[in-house]
Amino acid sequence: MAKVITIDYRPRPQSIDYHERTQRWSCTVAHRRFGKTVREINELIKRAATCDKPSPRFAYIAPYREQAKAVAWDYLKRYARPLAAKVLESELSIDLVTGARIRLFGADNPDALRGIYLDGVVLDEYGDMRPTLWGEIIRPLLTDRQGWASFIGTPKGKNHFHAIAELAKADDGWFYQELKASETGIVAATELDDARRQMTPEQYAQEFECAFDVPALGAIYATELAACRSEGRIAAIPRDRAALVHTAWDLGVGDDTCIWFWQQVGREIHLIDYYAANGQPITHYLSVLASRGYDYGQHYVPHDAEARERWSAGTMVQVAEAQGIRLTVLPREDVEQGINAARMLFSRCWFDEKKCAAGLDALMNYRREYAEKLGQFKPTPLHDWASHGADAFRYLAMSVDKATDRPDVTFSITSMASEFA
Asked: Using one digit for the tens of pLDDT, what is the confidence trace for 352-400?
């Protein structure tokens, strides 16, 4: 007779359909305090315990590793205890008696995910992760084993989580669920009434009623982006072949390096392209510039471009110059002054909706962090995936009126010297 192991978990009625779904892909938009982390941890345990593939691997991913540890690790240890064969605290992983492994990760360290395979993954608060994480890293990890993925979170404006939700609603190959506090009955009505009195209508709608059509809390450029969209300045913006293309960069080492491509057409600033990547040497980004085939003007980079690049024997500026590209290094300036300059620039900006989609996501999600204990937003912007694209835009605002119609160099790269690879 087979041994029966009982897990001390009783799913809420709203989660029964989720646990019994047959679709490979899933998206759940849930209000605060629904209990989504407990649900997702138990889904991973169930799937891992019943997987008949050899050496199954499953993952729970939060925006930050410390966040994953704080919100999910104790739950995983508690609910997996009857099945646990080995608990590795340093790796935040548990091996089950069935041979399966469940591990917690943070999206802030994508390199930890490279080179592995997954049979299933939960992306918790996907809207707080960098938009490229899914397509560039997670989705390929599921390919060999045809693994499944579950996206879950609370709205933070119309970002990449909103895009996944819209896809899931329209595609029968997805399981989609929207869980509003006014409908689930999980949070007491008296508590919701109190929250409604103490929160702004926008905050309440987002946190408890799953509203995507309000800006992310603390969003810095919400008003400016709303004006761009209502005035039709986020659309298909063709490249003007009579104008040079300038670039503005933000540099990352462990974080993203981001590049805005823009043209000045009269008084208008046309943002025609955007690129972001992580963990690449300067030669990679120079190759990207070359592959676009644009006629370039100036390339503006922040002050830290003159620091020694970890990939080579020189600084970023020196490596670029060896390839025939002159970078203009901007002086260090106050962040708030840069934000104000960016706000003033928006009225002149036209964004290509498709090519700049990831950059627009970053601008929409660039926000100040809310200090719960103080009851107010912190003075400095939150440093996360969105800040890099927003910083590159801030550098654009600092340099836009310095750009000229005369190219600094003739841009031509046929191959990258191996000494800089």
From this structure: 999 999 999 899 889 998 776 666 788 889 888 899 999 999 999 999 8
Contacts of 126 (CB under 8 A, 6+ apart): 134, 151, 152, 153, 160, 161, 164
pTM: 0.72
Q: Within its chain, how far is the Cα of 194 from the centroid?
A: 32
DSSP string over 274-296: EEEEES--HHHHHHHHHHHT--E
- H, E, C per residue of 349-392: EEEECCCCHHHHHHHHHCEEEEECCCCEEEEEECCCHHHHHHHH
C-alpha 97: how far from chain center:
35
Residue 342: φ, ψ to 5° = -65, -40
HSE (side-chain half, CA atoms, 13 Å) at 293: 2
The residue assigned the tokens 């689930």 is 184
Q: Which residue has the tokens 């912190």?
A: 378
Tokens of 20: 């019994």
The bridge status of strand 268-278 relative to strand 245-250 is unpaired
Distance CA 401, CA 250 (A): 18
pLDDT 10s digits, 258-301: 999 999 999 999 999 999 998 888 899 999 999 999 999 999 99
pLDDT in tens, 67-102: 999 999 999 999 999 999 999 999 999 999 999 999
225 burial level (CB within 10 Å; 0-12, 13-18, 19+): buried
What the block records as the tokens of 341 is: 């300059």
Three-class DSSP labels, 35-70: CHHHHHHHHHHHHHHHCCCCCCEEEEEECCHHHHHH
Structure tokens at 275: 């690129």
What the chain holds in terms of domains, given with CATH numbers, is 13-209 (3.40.50.300), 222-420 (3.30.420.280)
